[in-house]
Write a structure and sequence with these properties.
The complex is a heterodimer of chains A (402) and B (229).
Chain A: E1 2-5, E2 15-21, E3 28-29, E4 34-40, E5 43-48, E6 53-58, E7 65-67, E8 71-76, H1 83-90, H2 92-96, H3 102-105, H4 111-119, H5 124-132, H6 151-165, H7 182-197, E9 200-208, H8 210-227, H9 234-247, E10 253-256, E11 259-262, E12 268-270, E13 272-274, E14 277-279, E15 282-283, H10 291-306, H11 312-315, E16 320-323, E17 343-347, E18 351-357, E19 360-374, H12 380-400
Parallel strand pairs in A: 12-16, 16-17
Antiparallel strand pairs in A: 1-8, 2-4, 2-7, 3-6, 4-5, 6-8, 9-19, 10-11, 12-15, 13-14, 17-19, 18-19
Chain B: H1 2-13, E1 16-22, H2 27-42, E2 48-53, E3 58-61, H3 74-79, E4 83-86, E5 93-96, E6 100-106, H4 115-131, E7 138-140, E8 143-148, E9 151-161, E10 164-172, H5 196-200, H6 206-220, E11 224-227
Parallel strand pairs in B: 1-2, 1-11, 3-4
Antiparallel strand pairs in B: 2-6, 3-5, 6-10, 7-8, 8-9, 9-10
Helix pairs in contact in B: 4-6
Classes of the chains: A alpha+beta (402), B alpha/beta (229).
Amino acid sequence: MIKVIVPQIGQSIAEATIVKWFKKPGESIEKGETLLEIGTDKVNTEIPAPESGIIAELLAKEDDVVPVGAEIAVIRSAGEAQEPASVARASLPAVGGHGGPPHDSAPQTPAAERSIADTMRYSPVVRKLAQEHNMDLGAIRGTGEGGRVTREDLMKIVESLHSDIGATPAKEASVRRVPMSRVRKLIAEHMALSRRTAADVTTFFEIDMTGVVAQREKAREPYEKQHKIKLTYLPFIIDAVVKGLRAFPVLNSSVEQDEIVYKDDIHIGIAVAVEEGLVVPVIRNADRKNILELARAAQDLSNRARNKRLTVEDLENGTFTITNPGVFGALMGTPIIHQPQVAILGVGAVVKRPVVVQDAIVIRSMAYFSLSYDHRALDGSTADGFLAHVKRTLEEECATAE
Amino acid sequence: MSMNRALSTNSAIGESCSVEILESISYEDAVVLQESYVRLLIEGNGSERLLLLQHPPVITLGRGFHEQNLLYSKEWLQQHGISIHDSTRGGDVTYHGPGQVVGYPIIDLSRQPDLHLYLRNLEELMIRCVGDFGLNATRKQGLTGIWVGDEKLGAIGVRVVRWVTSHGFALNVNPDLKSFEYIVPCGIKHHGVTSLQQLLGREVPLAEVHESLIKHFEIIFKRKCVSAD
């Protein structure tokens, strides 16, 4: 048996990542042929096989971080029978036969048995763990193939040690420092900038969405069949927002020094949660689109956001933003204004609730809408006037539309 | 002892390394070229090389590539004239384009087999080079490359086979910095990447950069650079 170990590849290098295995167990390999590639920092390097033979075992997986000197593969030379491996297995019961909690048995393990244990193969991860927790691998009964000690075995022991004894010495506060991704950093800056810039206030309305729910139910199938569009409440809400912005144009403005810049075009940004954070693609000229066109635009943008197909233009020049924490179950939120806009609408989850209508308790589909606005540009009466307008559109137009 | 040092340095500098300057070569062609040089060197039939070149706009994805660091779809980028290549070098995603001096040393490290030392030497090479233009670039702990303040001026990604190096470094001399936005989000301000041109306020002739790199390469890597032809 020939052991393959992680070679010393630099004075300051203590560990490396397995980038790729070029061979699988059972395959043959020539001396000097590439067995694997490892990486450290910004360098990748190939490791050739030290001898010709058959790959008996790979002891680490791709993406595993392994210490220099760790055994990562075993090659059986061509003439070699399987004997050595079976010898190692034969000695297993003697090693692992103690049973019982390892912290009891560890000190009692006879030296002779341990020396046999030393000849057993452990994966680098297991060896590293054992070293970290100061455990004697020879004293542990493994559950892996042929009694080998696995990572899970060790983790179980570590956990039981902590729960059994209870009085483990107070550990130094353990923290993990992860540099922010670029996207994270940009979101952080943008959000903090908004809070530094705007005098933001949030106001809430409760809106009866029963009419919208019915409209959507009615249109859902034809939309799906004829247009391949999954109809949500969003297009109805955008439509109501557009009408509100027309009635209260200051909500569709920006503050520049001492001026309020009113915008004729209405471009509605839609906040979309994506894997690495949040993006706000923009539906252009939302005021010139009907429900079908809004639904199509919203679906297209959110699909492209999730597939990373948005272009810079898709993200620019929004004049008002809608965010929808309701999709995550939130009843209401206090969204942060997307600068340089002056307001953002948060849509809470649509939930059936008992409400009082004409002195009777009835079940209606309700949602809380929140509007965060910049108090520099407008006051509460305007903000609430706008939200009331949105409410009226959603409750009355949708309820009466046929 | 100082005598010994001097002697060993002298004898080492006798090793010659052919410098090849290519005005513009596609990423694929450069990979093929490097592979052939690496093979020749491993087989003992070739000399060490230092390739200095420019690539047409290309985004390369190293073995350590994380999908989220590419901000546009591959289709979109290709439509906009930027090709994309998987690369066998270490590191994540990077951009190469005109105005960037890319250096690919094909050298044998087996007499000094230390990968991190090699990375530090590549950094040293770029730091001394931009020093010739009056810039004080630094290293950042854990972030291979060279930096001015918080902005990256030179990047590194290396592959080593049998201790023979390929790929190497990319120094931003006069690149179009906007192009780096393909690998940063939303096209909002780029304060992650800088260039000699941006820092100095003038375009820097690439030939001057080549000359400086060759000069410091000879000292740092103890090799005599000769023109390859």
